[in-house]
Amino acid sequence: MSIGNSPEDERPFEDVSEEARPSIGRVLQQARMAAGLTVDDVSTATRVRIAIVHAIESDDFAPCGGDVYARGHIRTLARFVHLDPAPLLAQYDAQRGGRPAPTPAAPLFEAERIRPERRGPNWTAAMVAAIVVVIGFVGFTVVKGGDTGTGSETPVAEGSKPSSTKTASPSGGNSKPAEPKPDPTESAIAAAPQDKVTVQVSAVDGRSWISAKDHNGRLLFDGLLKQGESKTFQDSSKINLVLGDAGAIQLYVNGKKIESDFQPGSVERLTYTKGDPQVG
User: Fold this and answer.
1) If 0-12 CB within 10 Å is exposed, 13-18 middle and 19+ buried, where does residue 57 land?
2) Are 222 and 44 spatial neighbours (Cβ–Cβ below 8 Å)?
3) Each residue of 128-169: pLDDT tens digit?
């Protein structure tokens, strides 16, 4: 009678090893593509060079220059494509044998060795300061003595007339309350010229990376717009926009407020021209 394995024992084991998980670069690449972003978009917004973005998405971390820089790039790229960087950093540390140790502080004797030598008082500087004080005191005394012989009235220069000013009455019975100043944002929008396209971008609900180009493709602005900040762009015919987080942005085009339904975290590419604002 032979003893063999049961059918259950012959089934292949489920692969739960680290190799079965998607790689760090693959996860970042899929998230970027799902967000509709190019490598150039990510590099421009995060300031991580294009070559390094390509290398990280290929799981090649050598161009980063070390584990500390690699972990920083992973964190930056993950946050930009709306991923939690913690699992990716844990996966990176596991592949590298643990989190890199912090850089040790310099030994105490190094600080003692480079301590500047004690020097005596700088008598030359002290003497110069004393002379300056004496000269200043003498000059003040001379000027003060010359003023004692003058009258209380100040002569008026020839050809000019003294201006009569009225002191505001404490009661303020006839004074009118100051009118509120107009909102500079509304003034700028109202003054938008008709022969050009004017686009104002305001980060009202959070920060967002934005990019703006004119009709020739020339870059007008590329960077992070913090909450509460605004940028205004103007061109003779067309403005092209890319909004990294369109849900945080309020747009005014040619003096009119754009009522949009952009979702938080969505990436939008827009084009505006002269006339009534329309999404391109």
Assistant:
1) buried
2) yes
3) 888 988 888 877 776 666 555 544 444 444 444 444 444 444
